[in-house]
Amino acid sequence: MAKDTKERILAAALEMFSRYGYAGTNIRALTASLGLVKSSMYRHFESKEEIWNALLDEMIAYYAAHFGSPEHLPPVPESLDELVGMTMRMVEFTVHDDRIVKTRKLLQIEQFRDDRARALATKHFLTGLTEMFTRIFAAMMDAELLCRDDPAMLAFAYTAPISELIHLCDREPEKTPEAMARVEAFSRHFVKTYGTKKEQGRREAR
Amino acid sequence: MAKDTKERILAAALEMFSRYGYAGTNIRALTASLGLVKSSMYRHFESKEEIWNALLDEMIAYYAAHFGSPEHLPPVPESLDELVGMTMRMVEFTVHDDRIVKTRKLLQIEQFRDDRARALATKHFLTGLTEMFTRIFAAMMDAELLCRDDPAMLAFAYTAPISELIHLCDREPEKTPEAMARVEAFSRHFVKTYGTKKEQGRREAR
DNA sequence: TTGACATGTGACCGTTCGTTCACTATAATG
DNA sequence: CATTATAGTGAACGAACGGTCACATGTCAA
Q1: Is A46 helix (H, G, I), strand (E, B) or coil?
Q2: How confident is the model over B47-89, as pLDDT tens digits?
């Protein structure tokens, strides 16, 4: 019927692969969820593996387009409270955006089977956030909001615990409220530890 | 032949499940890796799923026996350097112990499919280490090695980044040396931030 | 109107899956 | 020594898998 069937198949593949894994997904169930029979799929993809490769292409392109380049850097916070607020907004977004949640789950499941998934997983879970906050923290040190320190080390110390809480939300969604509270508590603790004395005083003056 | 075939099957299952996942593993290949044919497996387990359940039982019991109770707490470090050293030894162990590495990989793959795997994953990746270091840090604060602070928050801030680096080792084993160096650098940075002034002085006096 | 192309279908293919079972070999037991 | 339990085998099973193909339908350009 529609010309967007190819995209609908990819969406269904992301849905099923992120639940059952590549090996645990069968094409009959996948196409049935779209109201098609399995043979219809082969009008759009040569094989199950080609779906997988196309999905990975898409995920890699999506990541590059949305988080890959420095131009997508969020504005550098102008206060410690703003850092906390920005962090909360980012985490709220990433744990509620359906596509990104499914992408992370898929990467968790397939990271040991496929080299491209492996590389993308490291970007998603580790280097991506760290590099982003390295730049932000360097700027905040210049602005004397954060104490002078190794910005990459602080970025890692800041983002890794948050990553772990995001994983918790993916794994046990019912714990999301608790996890969000912990993100905020951790973020506030972080700015209390590494914020400059000057900025700390300005905070409490409010 | 041997009476330990059941255990050998479980070991092979851990090996294959942690590589290809439950759905991606087939019994022919599993038993063949032990020099058996598939039907032999059914002398020891009723089904593939029973292997999975037995393996999970074993993993849960193993965790409880080795990390579950307070009696297995490592000795509380008596200096900041000792905290760094103890951390390094623990991480070295956990990223090189074959069984534990495979267990973590398996949990990463299956955490979204099985509720017991889900719960065990949270213990392995988050609460286990955090609770352990909450106790350690509380004791170190009493001993005036660490600044007075919320020990649970510090434990989380300490163990979560280390967890992320352990995951990196699991995912990309060739990066293990780099990851270990980052664990040590992070640990040293942590004690520099949260160690008491008194103890910092004692460190530099050496 | 006709032909070409894209999309979807149902029947079918060969393979692999998990599982069963009659049977054999071995070792322990009485 | 006969017996019984245990561990392993090879052939076979039905079901489910990924994949193919002749065919039906709809769309649109010539």
Answers
A1: coil
A2: 999 999 999 999 999 999 999 887 888 999 999 999 999 999 9
- Please state the φ and ψ torsions of residue B146, each to the nearest 5 degrees: -115, 150
Query: Burial letters for B39-56: b for 16+ Cβ neighbours within 10 Å, e otherwise?
Result: eebeebbeebeebbebbb
Q: CA-CA distance, A37 to B25, in Å (whole number)?
A: 27
Residues of B contacting chain A (CB within 8 angstroms): 18-24, 105, 108-109, 111-113, 118, 121-122, 125-126, 150, 153, 156-157, 160-161, 163-164, 167-168, 170-172, 182, 185-186, 189-190, 193-194
Are A193 and A83 a contacting pair, CB within 8 Å?
no
Query: Which CATH topology does B67-205 take?
Result: Tetracycline Repressor; domain 2 (1.10.357)
Which residues in chain A are closer than 8 Å to B113, comparing Cβ atoms? 19-21, 24
CATH 1.10.357.10 maps onto chain A at: 67-205
**C-beta of residue B152 within 8 angstroms of C-beta of residue B130:** yes
How many other CB atoms sit within 10 Å of the CB of residue B19? 15
DSSP B195: B
pLDDT digits (tens, 9 = 90+) for A116-165: 999 999 999 999 999 999 999 999 999 999 999 999 999 999 999 999 99
A150 contact residues in B (CB cutoff 8 A): 189
A124: three-class secondary structure by DSSP: helix
CA of A101 vs chain B CAs: smallest distance (Å): 12
Cβ atoms of B64 and B73 within 8 Å: the answer is: no
Residues in A closer than 8 angstroms to B125, CB to CB, are: 164, 167
Residues spanned by CATH 1.10.10.60 within chain A?
A: 1-53
Per CA to C1' distance, which residue is closest to D16?
Answer: A26
Please measure the distance between the N-terminal and C-terminal CA atoms of chain A and give it in whole angstroms: 60
pTM over 0.90: yes
At the topology level of CATH, where does B1-53 sit? Arc Repressor Mutant, subunit A (1.10.10)
